[in-house]
Amino acid sequence: MTDVVLSGAIRNNLLSLQNTAKLLEETNIRLATGLKVNSAIDDPTAFFTSRSLNTRAGDLTTLLDSLDAAVQTIKAADEGIQALTKLVDTYYNEGFNQFDNRNEFKRFLLDEYGQNILANTNASLRGLATAYGINHNDAWFDNAERRVLGGEATLDSYEDIFREQSALLYPQFENQIAGGQNVWDLVAP
Q1: Over the stretch 109-167, which tens digit does the pLDDT of each residue have?
Q2: Distance, CA of 97 to CA of 151 (rounded, Å)
Q3: DSSP string computed for 26-84
Q4: Global pTM?
Q5: Helix 102-113 and helix 117-131: axis angle, to 10°?
Q6: CB–CB of 147/102 below 8 Å?
């Protein structure tokens, strides 16, 4: 077999064509993969920087997805709370409008919710009155209970009323009562 002899110009042209083919292949790979550097051999610094940035971008994408899920959860919880609030308001308003008398409404609350809401409110009012040395009849407490449950008053507002009444009944303790003490605190041994 005979050796092929190439002149220097032809050899240079052949090497140039080989380099062009190699560059064309690298460009095709870059276009196909979207990567500027495909391996650490090509450019180690760029390759590892790119890999680190891609990893960080993936971490941030995961974090963003988690935040989006959390926001959706909070929105769903808010919608649920709003729906429950509307339901409670509806039941509450229906309770006062739907029933002919107070006892019928009491039975509705006790049967519907299984809790003695009214008794707890009434007992709280009576306990506050007793602590301040105030006596009222059952009708007064029933009326106060209705006002608290109807949103017209609060237990705190009734405590203020009891405090004022107590200061009038026990003028010798007026300053202490105004300062937040009740009659039981003052007479306890």
Answers
A1: 555 453 456 667 778 888 888 888 888 888 888 888 888 877 788 888 888 888 888 88
A2: 14
A3: HHHHHHHH--S--STTT-HHHHHHHHHHHHHHHHHHHHHHHHHHHHHHHHHHHHHHHHH
A4: 0.39
A5: 110
A6: no
